Amino acid sequence: MDKKLWGVISLILLMVLAGCQDRQATPEERLADYIEHWNDGDFAEMYRDYLNEGTKQAYAAEDFVERQEKLHNDLAIENLEVTFTEAPEDTEWDPEQPADFPVQITMDTLAGPVEFDKTMTLLHETREETEGWFVEWNPSFILPQLEKGDEVRISSTSAARGEIVDRNERGIAINGTGYEIGIVPERFTDDSKKAEVAELLGVSEEHIDNQLNQSWVQPEHFVPLTVASSSDQELLSQAVQIPGVTYQETEMREYPYGEALSHLVGYIGQITGEQFEELKEEGYTETDLIGRQGLERHLEDRLRGTDGSLIYIQKPEMDPITVAETPAEDGETIALTIDAELQNATYEAMRGEPGASAAVDPTTGETLALVSSPGFVPSEFMLGISGEKYTALTEDPLNPLYNRFAAAYAPGSTIKPVTAAIGMEAGTLDPSAGLTINGPTWQKDDSWGNYRVTRLHPEAPNPIDLNRALVYSDNIYFARQALEMGRETLVSGLESFGFGEAVPFVLDLRSSQVSNDGTLSSEGQLADTSFGQGQMLANILHLATVYQPILTDGIMYEPTLLLEEEDAQVWKENLLSAENAEVLRGNLRNVVVDGFAQAANLPDIPLAGKTGTAETKASAEDTGQDNGFFIAYNSENPDFIIAMMIEDVADNDGSGYVAELVADVYTDER
Questions:
Q1: Omega before residue 374 within 30° of 0, cis
Q2: What are the helix and strand counts (H, E) for the chain?
Q3: Taking a C-beta distance cutoff of 8 angstroms, is the pair 628, 350 a contact?
Q4: What is 405-426 written as a DSSP string?
């Protein structure tokens, strides 16, 4: 290229560049840059390079930068979006006149969305050797109506925890009142009484000292030591007999049915460090109470509710101005299918014995009672149970903290009606045909080695038909029927009753099983399984449910627990013909009238049912224990089927004792 031509082009480029450098940014361009920094939270940059001199004289950097940063953090401001309305394209800007732009501001805060419009003014100023447009600002661009000297405040409204009620709206877990029991130091002058207080309240003397030595304690202050439910009047009465000990009312979660519903409902308690780390993003604080066990934990999301928040501006000597508000939303009231009075009657009938019970409506599948005995006092866990009390519970041989209704046990002879149903439906068991059975034991042939089936009542008169086999609970009869139907038929039949699959229930329950691997590996195991031994296990709720087909002519419903769930959801069907169901209904009534459940043979309540005793052993050397069962219903008015299991009944009349306890439920129900 010609050197002269190149020189001309270079000169032209230099002139163009110089012209660009001399052009001032328009107020619109300056505002666009300012708003970009605003949206990004670059408050220091906004203050340094964009605010006009008048604004900087009125507001120091900390008033602008630090305050906005703090408010963004305190108010949990997110999704800030600032926009402005552009001027017409042909607008000419006069440096002697302000440039006004409509500005739109939206943001999300902890109290909800905030949205407002403002007019932002830019003024033309000369600074040293430069000229340009600068923003005129005041605090109302942070929040509407905010002025210098105003305070931005936050308040919260606690949401009430949702309550749990039974099917008749009786309170099971409710928001009520309880009591804090404590000491007023200036009146507690006899230090020798400390041991008495510790023993009465179930706390240690060290705990008492720690509470009294807190920095805030003054002689006239009430110092709480423990809590008591409103029903624990005896404890309150004993406490105030000690000089200096008193109590005061406090808001408290109440569990009116106490131990009877403890394993089902559970309790709330102080959030643990692990739970807080997991849930703090959901708004939990380190001082929150949270569902820790049972339905309180399982339904936490629905029961918790959402606290309300209010952001407001407090002006000197004026009423506050609301900026944003989200009202508290209380937790749900959740109704259960449980009949709390039936639950309580069942728990009381169990007399503190270790065991489990379940009652179901045979026509809907609703769970009317679900009991684990013994229970515990939920309120003791609410604000932290003492170490002494917790140790006593964990070392109690009855293991009151163990939830037995969630476990599974060998069902013993209570499974015999199911075995009979499978055989009748398969065509291998004729209920009217009798077998001749002699002697207390039996084996098919020598191939069984030392294994023999034992019967409890060898005095049962021959021939043994189904009715007599159930009345006398004859293991040999059912073992022979199982051999007749074969392993495949029994296993598939039990599976059709729900064995080997999860119980469709809102809470996790141990599945019932045919065996550890779902198969029967030998004829001996086939025989054992036919009368509820071997490796067979059944959950107590499932065990009550498998009796439904006897009353529904072959239908078994999914067990429900929440009243909102749909009733009568068919889980299994075509399990039993109407003819065969009628046979079993008659047999089970005869079990009570003619058999060995005489304690349940009530004069005015015609119960039908089946007893069962299951031997449990961890090994061949283990002496094991005998668990007793009774499953029953009112044969004329079968409102519910109840299944009850009591552990270790060998020295207490076996399953006949359980029949007595179930009879108590029915007599109490009257």
A1: yes
A2: 25, 25
A3: no
A4: GGSEE--GGGGHHHHHHHHHHH
E strands, 202-286, in order: 223-229, 245-254, 267-270
What is the dihedral angle through the alpha carbons of 412, 415, 417, 421, rounded to the nearest 10 degrees? -150
Q: What is the mean pLDDT of residues 317-337?
A: 96
What DSSP assignment string belongs to 471-511? HTT-HHHHHHHHHHH-HHHHHHHHHHTTTTS----SS--PP
For residue 157, give Cα distances in angstroms to 307, 310, 325: 6, 8, 10
pTM score, two decimals?
A: 0.83
498: tokens are 């729900």
Q: What is the pLDDT of residues 531-572, one digit of tens each?
A: 999 999 999 999 999 999 999 999 999 999 999 999 999 999
Alpha-carbon span 413 to 428, nearest angstrom: 20
Residue 451 is predicted with a pLDDT of 96
Give yes or no for a cis peptide into 463 (omega within 30° of 0). Answer: yes
Give the catalytic positions in this structure. Answer: 413
Cα-based angle 635, 641, 645 (whole degrees, multiple of 5):
120
Band of residue 4 on the pLDDT scale cut at 50, 70, 90: low
Q: How far is CA 102 from CA 32, 80, 85, 93, 384, in A?
A: 12, 17, 6, 16, 57
Closest to 489 (Cα-Cα) out of 413, 419, 572: 419
How many residues are there in the chain? 670
CB atoms within 10 A of CB 277: 11
Asked if residue 625 lies in contact with residue 609, where contact means CB atoms within 8 angstroms, the answer is no
Give the mean model confidence (pLDDT) for residues 340-355.
Answer: 98
Instruction: Specify whether the CB–CB gap between 479 and 469 falls below 8 A.
Output: no
Q: What values do phi and psi take at 202, rounded to 5?
A: 70, 35
- Average the pLDDT over 633-637 and give the result: 97
Q: What's the whole-number mean pLDDT along residues 621-630? A: 79
Cα distances from 465 to residues 146, 429, 435, 583, in angstroms, run 91, 10, 6, 12
Residue 239, burial from CB neighbour count under 10 angstroms (0-12, 13-18, 19+): buried
Distance of CA 584 to the CA centre of its chain: 39
Q: Which among 317, 320, 311, 26 is positioned nearest to 142, based on CA atoms?
A: 311
Strongest mean pLDDT among 123-127, 173-177, 504-508? 504-508
Q: What was the pLDDT predicted at 16?
A: 43
Q: Can you tell me the mean pLDDT for 315-323?
A: 93
> What is the C-alpha to C-alpha distance for residues 244 and 182, in angstroms, rounded to an integer?
8
pLDDT for position 617: 62
Q: Rounded to whole angstroms, how far apart are CA atoms 170 and 178?
A: 18
**Eight-state DSSP code of residue 273:** H
Nearest C-alpha neighbor of 467 from the set 588, 582, 636: 588
**Nearest-angstrom CA–CA distance, 204 and 509:** 37
Look up residue 630 and give its two tokens: 């009774």
Q: Which domains does the chain have, with CATH numbers?
A: 3-145 (3.10.450.100), 164-332 (3.30.1390.30), 340-393+403-669 (3.40.710.10)
Whole-number Å distance between alpha carbons of 355 and 609: 18
Q: Rounded CA gap, 61 and 64, in Å?
A: 5
Pairing of strands 334-335, 164-165: parallel
The CA-atom distances, in angstroms, between 387 and each of 197, 208, 228, 258, 397 are: 16, 13, 16, 20, 18
Tell me the C-alpha distance between 185 and 50, whole Å.
62
User: 373 forms bridges with which residues in the sheet?
Assistant: 355
Strand boundaries in 590-663, DSSP class E: 607-616, 625-634, 641-646
Residue with structure tokens 């080695």? 449
CA 640 to chain centre: 26
Identify the pLDDT of residue 12: 47
Left, alpha or beta for 449 (phi > 0: left; psi -120 to 50: alpha)? left
